[in-house]
């Protein structure tokens, strides 16, 4: 049996704030309902079949739609998307519909909202969900991909945005 040493969550978050992450907007839809969340916890899983994973807070009841819809779009944000990142992060007090009105969204294959000018967009079908204490890890098989012109990336580090 492992002897587990528990790390203080605040200390852990402070250390993770030094970890640079590419800012992403993950979106989903179910019927008329839409939801979008700014995240940095996303990555490629495989190129065959093309798949990605995202991590979402499972203590926020508004995120339940991600766990039930069966679809999501992972939208890679550029430096020019900082206001979009703020809108979907909760840094602003915008209502959900106003958040989606802050940018142009389209549909590709699954019906998840795709940011029209995302640096890259991965339209995904959920293939697995792993529940962890505070977050769910959602695996998606990529049904469609699209990318735009090259622009500087939006990075989050030391609790602030940076361009790369």
UniProtKB/TrEMBL annotation:
UniProt domain Flavin reductase like: residue ranges: 16-163
Main EC class the enzyme belongs to: oxidoreductase
UniProt keyword annotations, A-Z: Oxidoreductase
Single Gene Ontology BP annotation: pyrimidine nucleobase catabolic process
Alphabetized InterPro entries for the sequence: Flavin_Rdtase-like_dom (IPR002563), NADH-dep_flavin_reductase (IPR050268), Split_barrel_FMN-bd (IPR012349)
Domain of life: Bacteria
A Pfam family this chain is assigned to: Flavin_Reduct
GO MF term list: FMN binding; riboflavin reductase (NADPH) activity
EC number: 1.16.8.1
Name of the molecule in the record: Cob(II)yrinic acid a,c-diamide reductase
Source organism: Rhizobium laguerreae
């Amino acid at each position: 049996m492992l002897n587990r040493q528990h790390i203080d969550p605040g200390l852990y978050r402070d250390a993770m704030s030094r970890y640079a992450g590419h800012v992403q907007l993950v979106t989903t839809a179910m019927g008329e309902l839409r939801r979008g969340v700014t995240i940095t916890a996303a990555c490629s899983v495989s190129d065959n079949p093309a798949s990605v994973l995202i991590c979402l807070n499972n203590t926020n009841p508004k995120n339940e739609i991600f766990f039930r819809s069966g679809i999501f779009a992972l939208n890679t944000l550029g430096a020019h998307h900082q206001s979009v990142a703020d809108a979907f992060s909760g840094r602003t007090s915008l209502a959900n519909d106003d958040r989606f009105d802050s940018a142009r969204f389209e549909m590709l294959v699954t019906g998840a909202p795709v940011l029209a000018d995302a640096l890259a967009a991965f339209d995904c079908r959920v293939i697995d969900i792993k529940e962890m204490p505070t977050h769910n890890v959602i695996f998606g098989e990529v049904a469609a991909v699209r990318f735009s012109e090259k622009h500087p990336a939006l990075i989050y580090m030391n609790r602030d945005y940076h361009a790369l």
